[in-house]
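Sequence, structure tokens passed on for absentees:
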Amino acid sequence: MGKNIYLDYDFNGQIDYIDKVKESLLLNAKNKVPLAFVKTYGCQQNVSDGEKIKGILSLIGYEFTNIEEDADLIIFNTCAIREHAEDRVFGNIGALKYIKKKYPSTIIAMCGCMMEQKHIEDKIKTSFPFVDLVFGTNRLHKLPELLYTVVNSKSRVFECGLDDNKIIEGIPIRRDKRFKAWLPIMYGCDNFCSYCIVPYVRGRERSRRPEDILDEATKIINNGYKDITLLGQNVNSYGKNLDEDINFAQLLNRIDSIPGDYRIRFMTSHPKDATKELIDTISESEHICHHLHLPFQSGSNKILRLMNRKYTVDKYLNIINYAKSKMPDVSITSDIIVGFPGETYDDFCKTIELVEEVRFTSLFTFIYSPRIGTPAAEMNDPIPYEKKVKWFQELLKVQEGIAARNCRDMVGKTYRVLVEESKGNKLMSRTGGNVIVEFEGASDLVGSFKNVKITEARNWILKGQMI
């Protein structure tokens, strides 16, 4: 793969379309100001994309509503990771047919990962004729132009297709949270895990220039954001396609040197590229959370080979044990797929053994969902779904016990938490290790860091007292 082709995109290319489409939108709006309804499904990268969509729409002149029927523009930002997510999208988009019939001027749009699959695009064309606009993951920046085309051509617009090697900077962002921010550092994926659709719907790996990331990080911190999550399908491979010699650990170190009171998280981190340099950087940092989200997916080397994960259980445990030696307080979370094609109960038991050895803080667990176009979808899969469900429940029970023990071990200790939400006189907060802590306090503490002593442990939530 070649070097990245950067477009110094300052949105000037879309300004003319913004000015042109504003007048038409106002004429057709149900209210004095055009309203948009934006629904995002899926991962944190999708959420970040949704914030860019809202940023563009704000620039056009839209305000936002949570009621679909009130909206002049409805956008579903979709996810293709699992079949269940796709089914939800189609069910919800089908329910919009009556809105289009009642308000013909309403623009209905679909975007995101699902749209980069040809069979999905074809299904929308034939089964959902009331959808006006479909655009893919790499066409988000063209939204003003696409809306202008829909409004003025009075025809449906489909704009999909990957455009690898391009990084587009300067897209406006309307952040959903006032103290938590997403910061993409790269896009796409080169790993091609046999079960995963991401490389086919988001394209090949491309990293943002470090100066662009540092500039955005500085602005986020100066604007008072306290919790910054760096995003990438595999952040550990950051920098591989840049002209500058830089890796993820070095980028983290540069961000960590920005003055301010904040903390840094990152996801997702692939075990095959996790290094001791990365662990050392985290342990020696001022702002990086002692939290490592490192998906292992299966505890069986046979299944890892079938998944094309390119690491072994021993390699995974080596990096975990090194992290624990450097940071005794490290919180480790992970992803697991249950019932991958070819997995036997013996393979599954090896996953249980790994879970019990590592003692994860929490797990994101999934029953295998075949994705059209991936190698795994063509593999022989003789295990009945009902049996996979039983394995899944067994895994949940084991992890619940581990989580309960981990929480009990935290009682009596004091943690620095970020207050995220107020519920009456109760405050919901989160530790650097991503554990939820509830304590009493005033609502004006939301968005601030506080020290809390843990007084009580439940399976997933801790109770504490501010000190």
